[in-house]
């Protein structure tokens, strides 16, 4: 999708370009109109006085979705029509960035496995923006880079498990930063064994495709790094505690990892003056003959032993070793991102990821950034009383609660398990349970499949974090 700019008025948009007209009709009104003066896409956004940043995002996306539906390739829009009274605190640059990010996100379709139709895939190829200030134009340029990385993250997550193995995920991390000042190193099984990464190795044991552990480093500044770790389960069958039925879309269980890869790439592309490290523990959770069994006891990289109550609580195991590995970088802050629990979906539905942290300042910062980035978060408790959920009779801890009680507060319990490792870091730490936002939801105005969250939030966090 190409953006170009012009100072002329929208009435003078060149022939063949469809003009966007925002109306005060109810949200969801989408119309293609052919008039004597030209062609128009009419998009209802509700009352102009009521549009907020939250409703602005799907509104901008609806423009592109409608254009795609109508097979419109070139659109023109007036920047002035996208300035709403309730968004007056949003700078011109930020507004431009939001427009570009969200238009690109709405234009995305996962077509890698589809035969190209004769008239091509439906996508908008050109957006002509009229009367955009220089700062808004700069914002649009930045937003395009952000949108590209979000979409690249979606492609990784959408790729089927057969083509997205731990090895391919490691390769994807390298590919994402080719030509950028980012170093990428992948530990293979032999090195992981030497280090004693007993938790991630155990998860990978049941699969024919071995686990990997990838370290990305972007040093845009000196000083203690921001460490980001992402759950990279390239397919989660549940293991011996096999998942039943269909509809789990567990090839996307590496969505956390994909978001870290592209957040690091984004920081490098935008030359952010921060030191960022991305950790990608990747494994496939399969029920092979050598698979991890319920009640096996593992020794994690930290030295702590873990009793496996349920082999389907595997994400926390690979992240445990990643959190311990993070310690060697003496980080200023650690954030992990994971499609960790179905419980976070039960608690929050489809429109917010879970935020689990014991650090109130970090929570406030992340919640604020979630509002402005569009990758929404909602905080869940991490109080001491929940720590009982990781108690084990025979090991230092258990990976989850056994029996029926395991149904309750499982997002918090997952957080409490990770906390057992994060507490050794001696720096602020947060866990984002993105299971609710793994895929797009009705009303998002995005194509079906991976949502690419929380790349925008992670980038905003990297930009704003003061070590
Ligand atoms: N990857 C799943 C969680 C998940 C579910 C992500 C739905 C996205 C959508 C995770 O590994 C898992 O299976 N968690 C278990 C934990 C339980 C055994 C304590 C769950 O949530 O049921
Ligand atoms: Zn699982
Ligand atoms: Zn999983």
Q: Please give the domain count.
A: 2
Assign the CATH architecture of the largest domain.
3-Layer(aba) Sandwich
SS-derived structural category: alpha/beta
Strand tally is: 18
- CATH topology label of the largest domain: Aminopeptidase
CATH class of the largest domain: Alpha Beta
- The backbone outline, from C-alpha atoms, is elongated
The rounded Rg comes to 23 Å
Please explain how this structure is put together.
By secondary structure, the protein is an alpha/beta fold. It folds into 2 domains: 2-132, 3-Layer(aba) Sandwich (Leucine Aminopeptidase, subunit E, domain 1), CATH 3.40.220; 153-464, Zn peptidases (Aminopeptidase). 33% of the residues lie in helices and 21% in strands. It contains 12 helices and 18 strands. The protein has helices at residues 53-69, 92-107, 134-158, 166-176, 189-195, 198-204, 255-269, 315-326, 342-348, 360-373, 410-422, 455-464, and strands at residues 2-6, 18-23, 30-35, 38-44, 74-78, 126-130, 182-187, 212-219, 226-230, 232-236, 275-285, 297-299, 305-307, 333-338, 353-357, 377-379, 397-398, 429-433. The strands form 3 sheets. Strands 7, 8, 9, 10, 11, 14, 15, 16 and 18 form a 9-stranded mixed β-sheet that branches. A 6-stranded mixed β-sheet has the order 1-6-5-2-4-3, covered by helices on one side. Strand 12 and strand 13 (305-307) form a beta hairpin. It is elongated and about 80 Å long. 53% of the residues are buried. One zinc ion binds at residues 236, 238, 312, 314.
């Amino acid at each position: 999708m190409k953006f170009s700019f012009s100072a002329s008025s929208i009435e003078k948009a060149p022939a063949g370009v469809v003009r966007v007209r925002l109306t005060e009709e109810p949200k969801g009104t989408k119309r293609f109109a052919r008039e004597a003066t030209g062609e128009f896409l009419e998009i209802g956004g509700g009352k102009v006085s009521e549009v907020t940043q939250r409703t602005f995002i799907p509104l901008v996306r609806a423009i592109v979705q409608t254009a795609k539906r109508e097979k419109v390739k070139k659109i023109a829009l007036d920047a002035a029509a996208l300035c709403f009274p309730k968004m007056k605190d949003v700078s011109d640059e930020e507004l431009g960035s939001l427009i570009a990010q969200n238009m690109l996100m709405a234009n995305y379709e996962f077509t890698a496995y589809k035969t190209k139709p004769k008239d091509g895939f439906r996508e908008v190829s050109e957006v002509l923006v009229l009367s955009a200030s220089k700062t808004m134009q700069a914002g649009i340029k930045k937003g395009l880079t952000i949108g590209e990385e979000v979409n690249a993250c979606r492609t990784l997550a959408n790729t089927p498990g057969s083509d997205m193995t731990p090895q391919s995920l490691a390769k994807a991390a390298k590919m994402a930063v080719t030509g950028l000042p980012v170093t990428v190193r992948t530990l293979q099984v032999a090195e992981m064994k030497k280090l004693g990464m007993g938790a991630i190795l155990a998860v990978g044991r049941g699969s024919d495709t071995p686990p990997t552990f990838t370290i990305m480093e972007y040093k845009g500044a000196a000083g203690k790094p921001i460490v980001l770790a992402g759950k990279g389960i390239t397919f989660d069958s549940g293991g011996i505690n096999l998942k039943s039925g269909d509809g789990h879309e567990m090839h996307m269980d590496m969505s956390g990892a994909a978001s870290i890869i592209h957040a690091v790439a984004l920081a490098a592309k935008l030359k952010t003056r921060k030191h960022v490290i991305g950790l990608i523990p990747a494994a496939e959770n399969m029920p092979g003959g050598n698979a991890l069994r319920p009640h096996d006891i593992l020794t994690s990289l930290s030295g702590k032993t873990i009793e496996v109550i349920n082999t389907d609580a595997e994400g926390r195991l690979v992240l445990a070793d990643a959190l311990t590995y993070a310690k060697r970088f003496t980080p200023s802050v650690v954030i992990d991102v994971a499609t960790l629990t179905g419980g976070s979906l039960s608690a929050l539905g489809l429109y917010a990821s879970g935020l689990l942290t014991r650090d109130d300042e970090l929570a406030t910062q992340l919640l604020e950034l979630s509002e402005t980035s569009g990758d929404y978060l909602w905080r869940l408790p991490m109080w001491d009383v929940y720590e009982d959920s990781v108690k084990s009779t025979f090991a230092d801890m258990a990976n989850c609660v056994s029996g029926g009680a395991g149904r309750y507060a499982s997002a918090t319990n997952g957080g409490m398990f990770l906390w057992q490792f994060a507490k050794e870091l001696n720096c602020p730490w947060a866990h984002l349970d993105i299971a609710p936002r793994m895929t797009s939801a009705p009303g998002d105005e995005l194509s079906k499949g991976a949502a690419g969250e929380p790349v925008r939030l992670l980038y905003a966090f990297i930009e704003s974090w003061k070590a």
